[in-house]
Design goal:
The structure holds two protein chains of two kinds. Chain A is α+β, with helices and mostly antiparallel strands. Chain A has nine helices and seven strands. A seven-stranded antiparallel β-sheet of chain A has the order 1-2-3-4-7-6-5, sandwiched between helices. By secondary structure, chain B is mainly α. Chain B has a single domain, classed as Up-down Bundle (Butyryl-CoA Dehydrogenase, subunit A, domain 3). Chain B starts with 9 loop residues before the first helix and ends in a 12-residue tail after the last helix. The chains are: A alpha+beta, B mainly alpha. At the A-B interface, α1, α3, α4 and α8 of A face α1, α2, α3, α6 and α7 of B.
Chain lengths: 256, 183
């Protein structure tokens, strides 16, 4: 071979030449040590890329990459309802609440009615707060990531308030489907293992109700309110006065 | 329970299967995204955006064609949009120590190459980095790379050639003048 094309050299590096062509390139390189050294360096680049990054492809796929609306979530939401029945939270409305369909999720966000909002929050609390192994999707040790992720999915900045003044530490958070879009849930725990959840979602443009309200069903108390473009619901199985105290902290921090 | 009892009827089952096909691509998409962005969090955000677009555009994929190349095409487009809006090209974070954590006790002679590689990749312009990674790491054919990046195959080859040489110089510690513009 008198001449070697650039294409030949690159294809040789990538091992994409047939045997005849490869031998010709090898003969050429043998006579051109400078070029041979470059070819060897290029091969080492490929090797180094695999050494550096292959391990990522071997990691288990993080839960955040599972399709939220259709494939994974419906199964979970039926399980979630079963879970609610198990913890005795079930009331008539839950049976009437339709399962979330892809069409509903894809549809424009409907106005948020405070009552359904509080119920969604209470259900989410009842389902996830007893969870031992997987109470959250992203732990508090990755709080910046959690904040960035949930903010991105909700389309507005959301961040977990600091409830340490009330004795509750952040455990982490998760993404949930609300009736017509995403919602975020942050979970907190006190020294005795008592858990609170803060449920956050955007709401439709027509929402009139912004008052601070309280609702209780089967042991789970929920304070909920709407502040600018977000609805908040703080749920917990603690007495109303203490829950209110925490809710005020949340409100002050998020309004500030 | 409403839809609960009769779910996974025909349409839904088909969608579920499509989602499974897409999910199978995730490990390689994550690997490529990490190498491309140099940052674990940005990489996973890129994967997330790519998946969301793939889920909604899946009807446009032609069954029988290479799903992996299709997903890389989507990722390329998402990435280009991101860097053109955020000028993220300058934000490539060669995490060095953090990035090294991904390696599982590499052989000693590889460790040096790898450290140099991660630092040097970040100094390559995006155009070169994409081609080098799609060929060298993801093992796409030159034709597939041309399709993914929507450029002629001659451009793939010239970027490959120049990018490898530039990376070689960077890894060898030779200061080269930055190649800002590429054909």
């Amino acid at each position: 071979m008198n001449e070697m094309t650039e294409h030949d050299l690159q294809a040789y590096v990538d091992g994409r030449l047939d045997a005849g062509r490869r031998q010709a390139v090898e003969a050429y390189l043998a006579a051109n040590p400078g070029l041979a050294a470059k070819a060897a360096a290029y091969r080492r680049q490929n090797d180094a890329m695999h050494t550096a990054f292959d391990a990522i492809a071997d990691e288990p796929v993080p839960a955040r990459f599972r399709k939220p609306a259709r494939a994974t979530w419906p199964a979970l939401s039926y399980a979630a309802m079963a879970g609610c029945l198990a913890v005795g939270l079930a009331t008539g409305w839950m049976v009437r609440e339709p399962a979330v369909s892809p069409a509903a999720l894809a549809a424009a966000r409907s106005p948020l009615t405070p009552v359904s909002f509080a119920r969604q929050a209470a259900v989410a609390h009842a389902v996830f707060s007893p969870e031992v192994l997987h109470p959250v999707e992203v732990g508090a040790d990755q709080e910046p990531h959690l904040v960035k992720w949930l903010s991105k999915r909700l389309g507005v900045d959301v961040r977990p308030p600091d409830l340490n003044p009330a004795g509750f530490q952040l455990i982490g958070g998760r993404l949930l489907p609300a009736t017509s879009g995403p919602a975020a849930q942050f979970m907190y725990q006190d020294a005795r293992g008592q858990r609170l959840t803060l449920y956050v979602r955007t709401h439709g443009p027509d929402t009139q109700e912004t008052a601070f309200r309280y609702e209780k069903s089967d042991g789970v108390g929920v304070f909920y309110w709407i502040d600018r473009d977000l609805g908040y619901a703080l749920s917990g199985d603690i007495d109303r006065a203490r829950l209110l105290e925490v809710a005020k902290i949340v409100y002050q921090q998020l309004a500030g | 329970m409403g839809r609960g009892s009769n779910s996974l009827a025909g349409d839904e089952l088909a969608m579920w299967n499509n989602d499974r096909l897409i999910e199978e691509q995730i490990p390689r998409l994550r690997r490529y995204a990490r190498a491309l962005t140099g940052d674990a969090m940005r990489a996973d955000d890129l994967v997330q955006d790519t998946l969301e677009r793939a889920w909604t555009k899946f009807a446009l994929w032609r069954p029988g064609s290479d799903l992996r190349a299709w997903m890389f095409t989507i990722m390329h487009n998402v990435f280009i949009n991101q860097i053109s809006s955020a000028r993220a090209q300058q934000e490539y974070l060669p995490l060095e120590d953090d990035a090294l954590e991904v390696a599982v006790e590499p052989a000693q002679e590889h460790a040096l190459d790898m450290r140099d590689l991660i630092a040097s990749l970040g100094q390559l312009s995006t155009e070169y980095r994409e081609v080098l990674l799609l060929v060298g790491l993801e093992d796409l054919s030159y034709e597939e790379v041309a399709k993914v990046l929507n450029i002629p195959i001659g451009t793939v080859m010239s970027r490959l050639s120049r990018g490898r040489e530039r990376l070689r110089k960077l890894m060898a510690g030779e200061a080269a003048t930055p190649l800002r513009r590429v054909k």
